[in-house]
Hints:
The protein is an alpha+beta fold. The chain has helices at residues 30-38, 94-103, 198-203, 212-226, 247-256, 274-280, 304-307, 315-333, and strands at residues 4-8, 20-25, 47-49, 56-58, 62-67, 74-79, 83-89, 128-129, 132-133, 138-145, 151-155, 176-186, 235-238, 244-245, 262-264, 270-272, 287-288, 291-293, 300-303, 342-344. Helix content is 23%, strand content 25%.
Amino acid sequence: MPLQADCSLAQMNTLGLPAQAQWLAQPDNEAALQALLRDPAWAALPRTVIGDGSNLVLAGDIPGLVIRPALQGRAVVSEDSEHVLVEVGAGEHWDSFVAWTLAQGWQGLENLSLIPGACGAAPFQNIGAYGVELSDVLDAVDALSLRDGTARTFTRDECGFAYRDSRFKSAERGQWVITRLRVRLNRTPRLQLTYADLAARFADLPQAQQTPDGLRTLICNIRRAKLPDPVTLPNAGSFFKNPTVSADEHAALQQRFPDLVAFPQADGRVKLAAGWLIEQAGWKGRRVGDLGMHAQQALVLVNHGAAEGRATVTGAQVLAFAAQVRDSVQARFGVTLEQEPVILPAPTSDH
Ligand SMILES: Cc1cc2nc3c(=O)[nH]c(=O)nc-3n(C[C@H](O)[C@H](O)[C@H](O)COP(=O)(O)OP(=O)(O)OC[C@H]3O[C@@H](n4cnc5c(N)ncnc54)[C@H](O)[C@@H]3O)c2cc1C
């Protein structure tokens, strides 16, 4: 498999940050990837996996081997009268996969429409949107050990899924490269409409559009209206996770801020809307130099510099700007925001 030396990643991250991979490999089959991982010539080098770069802050050049799986393929593994078990390669584009499953008449992924990125990255942070998470439909993940190429299949329960989290992102970070995943989809639609006003907006559609396809179109339209397109305004989606606080902390905050946007969780804790906190701290639509928080969605950090053709903004500047936002939310609400996008190369304290 050909490897590229000193390869620019500027076009491979949606924040448009400049960085290089010392070596970039884009294997399109499992055997080639496994051979690379087992090749003694590369054994001493650190290994990093990337997908389409839509959830990354590239804080500098990445040393060693950067692996960007390019495995393609969609296949039905098994089916019965109710369900279809579908497998997809890590290098497939997520939203194309979602569109394809719906075109086959299989329902279950429509709420996850238009999320950028590759299929292999989806389990990494258990992508979620509009009341559905990948873990709701995921059956299993195939992966190779980055250390020695050993193949392993993880069942859904073994993936350690949580809100924007998994064993691949947390407990065993940097240990696995995901090669394939399998999702279980419905033949008879069971639409998930519990998120915010989604049910009302769906009910407003003409009867003929009240279908899984219609829901996909609705969600795509909502997303396009409020999220900046990374092609025209580089960004990495939500820059912070929604923080969770205890019921007592929530009660105290609500007394001080009666408009606080909050979602009670099954375990008694309360999830706060990070976008609301950031907006209240004065960051919505605010720009400092080449960076800012988006005017329609305060949770999204945007790189105006890259949008205006200046490739000068660095990952370090992004992290310093994000720290300002985090600090002001902390000062006003006493709530600590956790960053969602992954920093590469991994800071040493990250492990
Ligand atoms: C405009 C916009 C909107 C977004 N909306 C959402 C949303 O609604 N919900 C949501 O959950 N996310 C959202 N995101 C974030 C992002 O799209 C997802 O996290 C996506 O899954 C990242 O895919 P990627 O291929 O770009 O991964 P990358 O950004 O390249 O990588 C992200 C992480 O995954 C790891 N990784 C990637 N591929 C593999 C693999 N094959 N094996 C092991 N590890 C791997 C990388 O090491 C890295 O740590 C949004 C991003 C943008 C820019």
